[in-house]
Design brief:
By secondary structure, the chain is mainly beta. It folds into two domains: about 45 residues, no CATH class; about 90 residues, no CATH class. About 10% of the residues lie in helices and about 40% in strands. The protein contains three helices and ten strands. A six-stranded antiparallel β-sheet has the order 4-3-2-1-5-6, with no helix packed on it. The chain has a four-stranded antiparallel β-sheet with strand order 9-8-7-10. A hairpin with a 6-residue loop joins strand 1 and strand 2.
């Protein structure tokens, strides 16, 4: 059975809360996003930053750490001209109903736009599923876009 859980930064930005999202108002408007999480382990309701809410992928990395949307992996390749280090962001592509590892340089474009059918981005979706990268290649998990936004510019 799929385990549903979410992760978001608490309002004080000090830590991530993991659990199920909730609305902290009695009546939520249709366009509002959840602004709280009932923490799985403590049962406490904590206020979160809605823009940092990400879902668990259902996959753990090689060290057993749960992978959520927004997590960042590092890839290192040896080339004739020297070692090349790139970063990839775990991204939910709604139109393909799957998580993908998107190169950090393309993340700002793909996050809020449907590029899944555009020919110039087809290479991203051929062999870039999260499962392929995280388990087969075992890329190291190095951070996430909320606590380590500098990784998006590398």
């Amino acid at each position: 059975m799929k385990e549903f859980k979410f992760r978001a930064l608490t309002i004080d930005k000090g830590r991530f809360a993991i659990g199920l999202p909730v609305y902290l108002t009695e009546i939520a408007r249709e366009d509002e996003e959840p602004n709280g999480i009932i923490e799985t382990y403590s049962g406490l309701v904590v206020e979160i930053i809605p823009d940092t809410l990400e879902i668990y992928t259902g996959i753990k990395n090689k060290k057993g750490v749960e992978i959520f949307g927004g997590d960042v992996f590092r890839q290192e390749e040896e080339k004739d001209e020297g070692d090349v280090r790139t970063y990839h962001v775990v991204t939910w592509i709604r139109q393909r109903a799957a998580f993908y590892l998107i190169p950090a340089a393309h993340y700002p474009i793909l996050r809020d736009n449907d590029c899944s059918e555009e020919p110039e981005f087809s290479w991203l979706f051929e062999e870039a599923s999260l499962y392929d990268f995280s388990l087969d290649i075992e890329l190291p998990l190095v951070g996430n876009i909320y606590k380590n936004p500098e990784l998006l510019t590398k």
